[in-house]
Automatic annotation (TrEMBL):
The keyword tRNA-binding does not apply. Residues 15-243 are annotated as: Phosphopantothenate--cysteine ligase. GO terms for molecular function: FMN binding; metal ion binding; phosphopantothenate--cysteine ligase activity; phosphopantothenoylcysteine decarboxylase activity. This is Coenzyme A biosynthesis bifunctional protein CoaBC. The chain holds residues 217 to 459 of 459 of the full protein. It catalyses: (R)-4'-phosphopantothenate + L-cysteine + CTP = N-[(R)-4-phosphopantothenoyl]-L-cysteine + CMP + diphosphate + H(+); N-[(R)-4-phosphopantothenoyl]-L-cysteine + H(+) = (R)-4'-phosphopantetheine + CO2. Its EC number is 4.1.1.36, 6.3.2.5. CTP binds at D109, K119, P138, D139, I140, L141, F157, K179, K183. Catalyzes two sequential steps in the biosynthesis of coenzyme A. In the first step cysteine is conjugated to 4'-phosphopantothenate to form 4-phosphopantothenoylcysteine. In the second step the latter compound is decarboxylated to form 4'-phosphopantotheine. Transmembrane segments: none annotated. It comes from Leucobacter triazinivorans. Pathway: Cofactor biosynthesis; coenzyme A biosynthesis; CoA from (R)-pantothenate: step 2/5; Cofactor biosynthesis; coenzyme A biosynthesis; CoA from (R)-pantothenate: step 3/5.
Length: 243
């Protein structure tokens, strides 16, 4: 990093970062997906590498144009991911070798119970709109927390929609704290998303909550700036746990 305060402060730290959004197949040509572009997670991977970390980046359906931000960094190993099930297997395999895990990916909460082997055709559904039966995906983050190695720092993300009113930040933090308690993570990055906020843009704004629900950091700016601020909290947490 060109930033003298942060340069090398993650030297040798092995980091697992997930980014993007999983896609759950419906049939060979269709899927259920979400709007996550992977930009925030990729920015975390790039910033961490610049600060000396060795990063495994599990990239769920992230465009090559977004991944260009880490392709030139030897310290980042990119693993392409499709579904939540693939992400779960890859995350468990990679987590055992990581001092910190940053779960920025948007994981589909549900998948289609029975994926059709062939394309669903109007001709075959006799004018009736088909009904998709969904089943819940495992919570990957909760699984990682359960299997964590001693001293490992685990960070979750919470993208929440809130009413666009003056107390929107209170609602955001309140939702974040409830999620924090459910997940058992060390840090939770909480940000507001909506029809016009959070996704395709290069800007982001988030709070970092510590395990007790206190605001450990607040960042707003480019996704890179936000990434650096989040990594400051991860670095501090790693230091606290190693003492
Ligand atoms: N997450 C996960 N596995 C899932 C769902 C979510 O690992 N099946 C992780 C996400 O990567 C993120 C965190 O959990 O780091 C919070 O995701 P979010 O979707 O906000 O939480 P959910 O528990 O799914 O709650 P909600 O009903 O608000 O979607
Ligand atoms: Ca969810």
């Amino acid at each position: 990093s060109s930033d003298p305060v942060r340069r090398g402060d993650l030297d040798g730290v092995r980091l697992l970062v997930t980014a993007g959004g999983t896609r759950e197949p419906i049939d060979p040509v269709r899927y259920l997906g979400n709007r996550s572009s992977g930009r925030q997670g990729v920015a975390v991977a790039a910033a961490a590498a610049d600060r000396g970390a060795k990063v495994v980046l599990l990239a769920a359906n992230v465009d090559e144009s977004v991944l260009a931000g880490v392709r030139d960094r030897g310290a980042v190993r990119v693993v392409p991911i499709g579904t939540a099930a693939e992400l779960e297997a890859a995350a468990h395999a990679a987590a055992s070798g990581a001092e910190a895990v940053i779960m920025a990916a948007a994981v589909a909460d549900y998948r289609v119970a029975e994926v059709a082997e062939h394309k669903i055709r109007k001709e075959d559904t006799a004018g009736e709109a088909p009904t998709l039966t969904l089943v819940e995906n495992p919570d990957i983050l909760v699984g990682l927390v359960r299997g964590r190695r001693p001293g490992q720092v685990i960070v979750g993300f919470a993208a929440e929609t809130v009413a666009a009113e003056s107390d929107a930040d209170d609602e955001l933090l309140e939702r974040g704290r409830r999620k924090l308690a459910r997940k058992g993570v060390d840090l939770l990055a909480v940000n507001a998303v909506g029809w016009t906020e959070g996704f395709e843009s290069d800007a982001n704004r988030l709070y970092v909550l510590d395990a007790d629900g206190r605001v450990a950091g607040e960042a707003s700016g480019s996704k890179r700036e936000v990434a650096d601020r989040l990594l400051d909290a991860v670095r501090d947490e790693l230091r606290a746990l190693s003492h």
